[in-house]
């Protein structure tokens, strides 16, 4: 990548207005793997101005022209997928097998889903015989994305926004920016008109805050921590811009007595995937009392069998946490669980044996966890799980909903009516049951402090639209 220190503004790769180098650290070995530039207010303003100038033309560009560009982008993305896999593996520590299959695959899967949804999407629909409802692009959108699933989140924001007719400024995570730069190369190669897509690297207090407060930005779509989401909402309030938030989670995995035999082991493996750095990770496992002893053995064995290794190694292991800051946070929370009296079933503080450099954490499981403990309440964002028994359906529903978050919960039972009944009672935007994944274009988003708005498919396109009522359309 030759554009690491540049920004993509108004269809051109441009140097920052002022030098502000920032080292990108490979979390597998703690070494500098690239150097980018962090933008200043002048760079933010230039990107927003370019998006604003391009909006009128792009908003009224025929759907067929937009579709052709999206299809070309998909072809480029697939052709250069190995570059993307290597970039994400190096920048945020996803093992290369996971990076190729799931990190890269998430981007192409969502891109295909948006193309299918866009093809069928009706922007103008009759309300009555004489009244028309129009769905029109909201305007210039600031898109602020995280480091844990880089392409998943960039595609979930950029593609529906531009399909809707909006113009955008992307700020990728400064911790894992290489994939964002590479994606910008894809957009440039696809030939989107100048100013439709812009990218400025920067941190949250800098470019992130400037975009959130910018008077010429009509909408902010942010994925990240609930703490940052609150700050963005406050910053955006002065200009009353729309804010869409996909934030943290503390998902519960409910395993009833009639669940399939390997449900506890599968739940633990799902929690540890991506080194636990997923907002929808099932980090609290609730097991019906009659199967709790069995679950303890399965989960302990799964944690101890989960290999931790560098991201560059092939295989089904988990990699490092993304940064020194994240490593220290996870270590502190594991220690907090021990100090507050939880029982350590597996793992613990420190690096796994044989790894003395890199931000590696041990897959960790606690039992005897009570609702007043920090590890029960706080999103840890590492390979750490709490395992607890329950007695009745009512009890576990109350336990599951006892959190300020509401992103994804999980249910395991062969009783269809129970599965449906409990799913209705859980206060979360998504409920996955019996390991059945969600369909392409399914709405992704949460309740409560897990955010607002939905991403994916037609739901994602609607996020970037205004609704206009026009009377006398056929008079």
From TrEMBL:
InterPro entries: Ald_DH/histidinol_DH (IPR016161), Ald_DH_C (IPR016163), Ald_DH_CS_CYS (IPR016160), Ald_DH_N (IPR016162), Aldehyde_DH_dom (IPR015590). The keyword Oxidoreductase applies. The keyword Transmembrane does not apply. It catalyses: an aldehyde + NAD(+) + H2O = a carboxylate + NADH + 2 H(+). Its EC number is 1.2.1.3. It is an enzyme of class 1 (oxidoreductase). One of its GO terms (molecular function) is aldehyde dehydrogenase (NAD+) activity. Residues 13-470 form the Aldehyde dehydrogenase domain. Keywords: Oxidoreductase. Signal peptide: none annotated. Residues 432-451 are annotated as: Disordered. Belongs to the aldehyde dehydrogenase family. This is aldehyde dehydrogenase (NAD(+)). It comes from Litoreibacter meonggei.
